[in-house]
């Protein structure tokens, strides 16, 4: 890989869905030229409907749309945000590999697929990796960087550098895992949350209140290890927590819900509880207020060095 030291001026985005459009909005706000490709008939319309309220007119002038993947021939970085289907990924990456310069990274926003499972469709698999954003990418800075079996270490280093330069917070995963790391952590919480609601231990609304007004507040500022360390008090830190609260925590682990399946009873409990919680809520307004609060929180964290 030779372009890592160069500036990423133009980014190609494959897919104009929710993730691709959000990536485009972020990249335009970062001052980059963005070329979006998507073969769907209404793709350009959907893209503009998402992006126009988020960026100024000058930024929109740096946005190009084409239904043809060949439009990405001269980009400096590719972000694929297409369907989460392995057959589609293999086809798209093979096409990208044939069009885009060999020194340009080909990254996938896949939320759980392994890069090793589709990079071998390319002649240059060493430049293929996953760069999984946290939704929505135009607001949330996290990107998980995952190399595959054939990805070169230089490509991973290059991805970390380029993503940081694009205003993201990249984290390097040392292993390929289904769901990567963050989605696995979310899945662990959801599994127990769904089980607690299904068994009648708490309502959906109260569980949401508990997380949003308790641990979620601290998790938004520091990760689980740093949070636990600060809970130790008196300078004793996480070693004190593990020594004194470790045994009861192990007992809680043993009592957690076993392997859980989304059977009809669980699905009904979760869906009905969520519908009841949000019955009188304007979801578009809630989403807008959440996004505004997210933007303010991220700005406050940056101002405080968190």
Automatic annotation (TrEMBL):
Gene3D superfamilies: N-(1-d-carboxylethyl)-l-norvaline Dehydrogenase, domain 2, NAD(P)-binding Rossmann-like Domain. Pathway: Lipid metabolism; butanoate metabolism. Keywords: Oxidoreductase. Pfam families: 3HCDH, 3HCDH_N. Residues 10-174 form the 3-hydroxyacyl-CoA dehydrogenase NAD binding domain. PANTHER family: 3-HYDROXYACYL-COA DEHYDROGENASE FAMILY PROTEIN, 3-HYDROXYBUTYRYL-COA DEHYDROGENASE. InterPro entries: 3-OHacyl-CoA_DH_NAD-bd, 3HC_DH_C, 6-PGluconate_DH-like_C_sf, 6PGD_dom2, D-isomer_DH_CS1, NAD(P)-bd_dom_sf. Residues 179-232 form the 3-hydroxyacyl-CoA dehydrogenase C-terminal domain. The keyword Oxidoreductase applies. The keyword Oxidoreductase applies. Belongs to the 3-hydroxyacyl-CoA dehydrogenase family. This is 3-hydroxyacyl-CoA dehydrogenase. It comes from Arsenicicoccus piscis.
